[in-house]
Design a protein that fits this description.
With 282 residues, the chain is α+β, with helices and mostly antiparallel strands. It has 2 domains: 137 residues, 2,3-Dihydroxybiphenyl 1,2-Dioxygenase, domain 1 (Roll), CATH 3.10.180; 125 residues, 2,3-Dihydroxybiphenyl 1,2-Dioxygenase, domain 1. It contains 6 helices and 16 strands. The strands form 2 sheets. The chain has an 8-stranded mixed β-sheet with strand order 2-3-4-1-5-8-7-6. β2 and β3 form a beta hairpin. The longest helix is centred in the N-terminal third of the chain and has 13 residues. It is globular and about 45 Å long. The two termini are 26 Å apart.
Length: 282
């Protein structure tokens, strides 16, 4: 029923500063910009998903709610939206697995620059039942326009999104049994903790129980993003030239990958850059 990740939402104080930061990180131009319902929005659409930046705009109850969330939680990952080819069937499944979805809503959005309009249908599961992670489900009527590359070393797409949990058994039941994502890996390590990989289209939802215990077993948290690139050395050179703090490339936990950590220019999001070797890509 879920065929991939449609987009993730990043909540920001300043939409212009956030957009500029991700233009640098991704080496892509925004593909969509609009305002409404108390928020300004900027989208970057990559090969396998979109990144939606959202910031409060104007004075309204909706804008005040966004400001209140920012005051409590700060900037960062706010929600995840799964893609489905049939919102009606998705809604019925969510009801059957007791996630209490909202009624399906029909939505449209008009791009400020081009005047083009996108249409979609969406629903949202009850956040109290998705372990504190805001989850939407969306059937898009047509493809989103892609973000134009500004460099050969542009980010290609998302490799995985990381969810931090203190209760891996219940998290596994949510993403596997209830949402129907295929578990590709369940591994424990003394230094890393427990890692669970769930396939979601051509990317991974990674659920992590870290060795150092937290204090909230009822609620998980959207924790980080790992971006996929073709050439990690070229990407590092580009980011360093832009003034960002980046680690040296190192072997990834997954065989056949190299990764590097990004320490600035991420709007507070834990960020990795990942390159697959030719053998791993095959």
């Amino acid at each position: 029923m879920i065929i991939g990740l449609d987009h993730v939402v990043v909540l920001l104080e300043d939409i212009k500063a956030g957009s500029a930061a991700f233009e640098t990180l991704l080496a892509r131009k925004p593909s969509w910009q609009n305002s409404g319902e108390g928020a300004d929005r900027v989208l970057f659409t990559l090969d396998n998903m979109s990144l939606e930046l959202m910031a409060p705009a104007g004075q309204s109850p909706a804008a005040d709610r966004i400001r209140n969330v920012l005051k409590i939680w700060g900037e960062g990952l706010a929600s995840i939206c799964f893609a489905t080819p049939d919102i009606g069937k998705m809604h019925r499944r969510l009801e059957r697995v007791a996630l209490k979805p909202d009624p399906v809503a029909e939505v449209d959005s008009t791009d400020r620059a081009s005047g083009a309009t996108l249409h979609w249908k969406r629903t949202r599961a009850m956040t109290d039942l998705t372990r504190g992670v805001r989850m939407f489900f969306l059937e898009l009527a047509g493809p989103r326009p892609a973000s134009e590359k500004t460099a050969d070393s542009a980010v290609l797409g998302l490799d995985h999104i990381v969810v931090s949990t203190e209760d891996p058994e219940r998290a596994a039941a949510l993403y596997g049994a209830r949402l129907g994502l295929d578990m590709a890996l369940d591994r424990s390590h003394q230094e890393w903790g427990q890692l669970m990989f769930f396939r979601c289209g051509d990317l991974i939802v990674e659920v992590v129980k870290r060795p150092v215990a937290g204090n909230d077993k009822a609620n998980d948290k959207l924790w980080g993003l790992s971006w996929r690139v073709a050439d990690i050395e070229a990407t590092r050179a580009r980011l360093v030239a832009a003034g960002l703090q980046v680690s040296e490339p190192r072997a990834g936990r997954k065989p056949g990958t190299r990764v590097m950590s990004l320490y600035s220019g991420t709007c507070g999001i834990h960020t990795l850059i990942l390159e697959k070797t030719p053998q791993a890509a095959e």
